[in-house]
Amino acid sequence: MSFFTLSLTLIFVLIPLLLSKTFGLGLERDTLIATVRSIIQLLAVGYVLKFVFDSESLLYVFLMVALMIVAATHNARNKGASIKGITWKVALALVTVEVLTQGILIGFGITPATAQYIIPISGMVIGNSMVLSILFLNRFTSEVESRKPETDLILSLGGTPKQAIDRPLLSSIKASMIPTIESQKTVGLVQLPGMMSGQIIAGADPVQAVQFQLLILFLLLTTAAVTSILLGFLSYPTLFNERMQRIRN
């Protein structure tokens, strides 16, 4: 695709701009900002990745993955601002998922330890983990707030913090995992995933593209489970003090 052809795709930006203006949605500024940022960020990343791939240095790979984790942590932590130490909790969840998935992939020889494989797969894993963190924290803080009387009652009857928070915690973990599970039920029927579609457009064998896509789908299941559960069990103890009383915000 040439830059001229790419410029023609801005038609797909013009359409929502016109619709927003016509119906008074007020999304023109945000749409333009999102478009400009996506162009700058993706082009910059493209040139950086070309340099990293050509250098074949694992140090640059590590720095790229570290940058992804830092950016994802910064974006996700705002949803759990009321939870003490949420920044390091989110970071630990992201690092754990990354180490676990790459450890399995490289350890079992599923994918080679090269930048071409590590960086794109890490991007998908960390990005998905970030979204799951946001979903979990958004639901968890809402559940905790709405169930304060129930939590206080359980504590007053001698229940432990774990017993008091069990229902909102498990409900939040389940709610954050459901989108990943449900999307995989219709994959290939309702939608062709991005990685698979990209490979096919690039001329790859469709069966080979499907195999790589299945790899990513299975990775995302682990990402969903580990991120939600780890973040949940790291977060709930900070809602209570050493006397097993709920901390008032």
Summarize the model shown.
This protein is 77% helix and 0% strand.
Structural class: mainly alpha
What's the main sheet like? none
Average pLDDT works out at 86
Shape: globular
Individual helix count: 10
Low-confidence stretches: none
Q: What's the helix-strand series? A: HHHHHHHHHH
Radius of gyration: 21 Å
- The total beta strand count reads 0
Strand % is: under 5%
The end-to-end span amounts to 54 Å
Helix content: over 70%
Question: Can you tell me about this structure?
Answer:
By secondary structure, the chain is an all-alpha fold. The chain is 77% helix and 0% strand. The chain is built from 10 helices and no strands. The protein has helices at residues 3-8, 11-22, 28-55, 58-76, 86-107, 115-146, 148-156, 161-185, 194-201, 206-235. Helix 6 crosses helix 8 (161-185) and helix 8 packs antiparallel against helix 10. The longest helix is centred in the middle third of the chain and has 32 residues, at 115-146. It is globular.
Write the topology of this structure.
Elements: H1 3-8, H2 11-22, H3 28-55, H4 58-76, H5 86-107, H6 115-146, H7 148-156, H8 161-185, H9 194-201, H10 206-235
Helix pairs in contact: 2-3, 4-5, 4-6, 5-6, 5-10, 6-8, 6-10, 7-8, 8-10, 9-10
Features:
mainly alpha; 249 residues
